[in-house]
Amino acid sequence: MKIATYNVNGVNGRLPVLLRWLDESKPDVVCLQELKAPQEKFPEQAIKNAGYNCIWHGQKSWNGVAILSRKHAIEEVCRALPGDPEDLHSRYIEAKIDGITIGCLYLPNGNPAPGPKFDYKLAWFKRLTAHAKDLLSRDEPTILTGDYNVMPTELDVYKPEKWVDDALFRPEVREAFHTLVAQGWTDALRKLHPDEKIYTFWDYFRNAFGRDAGLRIDHFLLSNHFDKKLKGAGVDKYVRGWEKSSDHAPVWIEIK
């Protein structure tokens, strides 16, 4: 089974790119973030015509998450991260597909830091960590994937010295990510590529993609049920080079 995550940065504006990638790559399950579309404007029919069932939680202009499945039915579990009923951001959706619990997340950016947006990011991280602990306690195959908006180590960022005060790289955020992983999750890309420079995001400015001045902020965290089943993991970097592409590239894993 091939599972992918992709921050599309506007599902309708990037729809030709998304459909082209789906046709070429043919992942079995896809988690999308940053739909930037209200619920009724999600391109459901185009996705279905491409061969995918889908569930989504949209939001006008911002955020938005979706899960697509090519072969298996999608059993929706929830469409909000537990812990704050007043949080109206569409940043989390969870489903069961072929016996696997899949959480698709779009963690807040948090800039400028310090400030209210950074506080919201840390609070969201705490809620995610609490929910992740609950998921692990159920002892079921589980995957948490999406745009975490954090570079865990200096290996995950081009010129880390320039990012020390950014909300994606501040010590509090990196510590929150490591605390989450320490519950018993496996960072899939790092398990298979422990020392490689791997990026998943390149800014539109200053020829960042051409210079390979990127960040690794899209992650797959796997429960221990996949310790011997993870067979591949990578980034479809070439998609970032397509015309009118997202500033993220699709990230994928293959499990037996």
TrEMBL record:
CDD domains: ExoIII-like_AP-endo (cd09086)
Required cofactor(s): Mg(2+)
Lineage top rank: taxon: Bacteria
Entries under InterPro entries matching the protein: AP_endonuc_1, AP_endonuclease_F1_BS, Endo/exonu/phosph_ase_sf, Endo/exonuclease/phosphatase, ExoIII-like
Encoding gene per record: xth
Protein name: Exodeoxyribonuclease III
One function term, GO molecular function aspect: double-stranded DNA 3'-5' DNA exonuclease activity
EC annotation from Swiss-Prot or TrEMBL: 3.1.11.2
Record key words, sorted: Hydrolase, Magnesium, Metal-binding
